[in-house]
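Reproducibility note. Readers wishing to regenerate the assembly model reported in the main text can use the exact inputs given here. Chain order matters: entities are listed in the order in which they were concatenated for prediction.
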Amino acid sequence: MKLNLERVEVDEVTFGQENSFDDGLLTIDKKELLDEIEHDHRITSLNAEIVRPGESVRVMPVKDVVEPRVKVDENGLFPGFIGEEDQAGAGTTRVLSGMTVMTTGNVVGFQEGIIDMRGPGAEYTPFSETINVVLTCEVEEGTEEHIHEEILRILGLKAAHYIGQIGLEAEPDSSESFEYESISEAAKDGDDLPLVGYVYMLQSQGLLHDTYVYGVDAKEILPTLISPTKVMDGAIVSGNCVSACDKNSTFMHQNNPVIEELYRRDGEDFNFVGTIITNENVTLGDKERSSTLVAELAENLGLDAAIVSEEGFGNPDTDLILNCKKLENRGIQTVLITDEYAGRDGSSQSLADASPEADAVVTSGNANEVVELPPLERVIGHQRYADSIAGGFEGSLQDDGSIKVELQAITGSTDELGYTRLSAKGY
Amino acid sequence: MAELKIAHYLNQFFGQVGDEDEADLPPQQKDGPVGPGEALDNALGERAEIVKTIITGDGYFNENKARAREKIKEFLQESDVDMIVAGPAFNAGRYGMACGGVAEIAAELDLPFVGGIYPENPGYDMYKKFGYFIETGDSVGSMRKGIADIAEFIADYIDADGSPGTPEEAGYLPRGIRKNFFREERGARRAVDMLVKKIKGEEFETEYPMPSFDRVDPQPAVPDLGEALVAVVTTGGIVPKGNPDKIEASSASKFGKYKLNGVQDLTSEEFETAHGGYDPVYANEDPDRVLPIDVMRDLEEEGEIGELHEYYYATVGNGTSVANAKAFGKEIGEELVRDGVQAVILTST
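Running the prediction on these inputs yields the following structure tokens for the assembly.
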């Protein structure tokens, strides 16, 4: 299975009379966009706005971030939601690079991230560097939270799919191909190189901590192999809530940096032979089962080593450590990617579980560290939630509109797929 | 003129007041350096000057904590110093605890603290986050080197404008404090680099050394539950409607204590969840789902338990630091023991 990933650099986005792409300028017919994506009778209002890097704008609470993409010949984008499973992961996918679709609205209790396009907060979120089409969507009063989540989740996917199609008329700026070979082929690429895999942990604690794989709730899956090229086509979609710092937005899945980095050195330092997705369910029985199956699958693939990335914190720290122990006990060397909850002063224990086998850890920073976000001129969404979102506390929202908040409230700030450069060290 | 004015803390022995028989000496202050302070003052040269020495008996400090601390704080507040130095305490347990206590006072006053200590002295581990502890040997035999190391650290501290870098760079004992910074490469690239080194058997440095873990042994069963006073404590965030103590949805800084007198059942009219880590619909519909007071009352009626305690305790476990959780647990535990509670049911989410 081979996927060509073509990138179209988007320099500017604007609303206009009709959809077009011309020399880096993407024009979107806003009315048609809104008509096309309004998919549920419970939506009471829907609007789209464009925010750009450096503008004095705060978007909060952000539910999800999605990258506009389109399949050039096939219908395989977001398989299980929009596209067909057997058309994903192969052929050509075109990416509108440098922009995103972002969903917001009255969504507290959900993935309540803050994205500042300017100032100190902007340094912590990767989405201050992209042009973002922000969809503000409200639903009927009384709509249950999990329905509300689903409405917004699908809205984001539909918008990314709709906007992505405008890219069909663009000339790609670059093209790269990724191949997912049979295990025996992949293992042969370089002579005697070690075999490396990726254990891709998906948030599945439930009650709005959910991830979808081909449209299936990840709570219901057993650990299995997935083609990295299907991940690029949106086979993994976020349905997450709270602590937006380390829940993978759909954008992060589409652009999974661990997969990119493993491909980059594939055939040179090792042979990248497989990606295993697994979940983070809350009962011990589930944790034991999933971690055992991960280790057995890795052993069966003949892996010598693996990267393990966590999603979330606290309860899933146990899954991370179980995966690490069971892999290391089978002689499969591991490097873990996690973030830390070391308290606001940094002096507390960072993870809820630990083990001497976990001797190679990459950290994306202490999510409890407090930052002060000065007031910005415009707020899209609802700033009043600053006190009650995860990472906020009583008095977070100051009278002048500035917000004192833990990093955990900032979307993607301590991303555990290793998308950003934030880290921590001991003093 | 020295760049930095220092107050130096010593116990009765090094403060040259007397031996163990003077251990109950209340805090005293003297102008200028005393004993090891004189050597330190010399070693500091023009960089810094000890302007005051505070001397307290080890016994007094540890047995009259509140009073000792208050007095020392007073001494420090009335003097115009830029830094507090304590010890070295070597491996003397009570002296080390007193030096640590002084570090905590320094932190309260927002003054930098430098102490000399042997790493196994309990005063280091308990108070390390409040200041910089410089490693010394376990006995007074290492005084000369200890003083030289402390002086060197203070000079470096001045040169670095109060930000002396990591423990390895600046030569102090780890404080157990994690601080954020941006690395050169993104996390995914660092992970793959680290994996390649690990496979090749090359040296690599983990970015998060794993801590040794606190494990709590399961306690023996309650002998006669039918006679026991039983309490319920939850990290699931169940609070009286309106969240009167404003417990945070995540990273709780406090817990609440609420009366159960006359409460047979937690209703959605009177109770709700403050927890921000799960879909609140089901907990708000019927808070007993997280804190089963209805079932506890049944058990009470059926004689399965003696009595349900008249208060319950609640906090939010979501993202709450281990240090905060430990402190809440200790305080709640002490109150429950004081109230004669024999068994506790802990509910989470």
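We highlight two features of this model. The mean pLDDT of chain A is 94. The helical segments of chain A are 30-37, 145-166, 183-188, 228-232, 250-254, 257-264, 284-300, 315-329.
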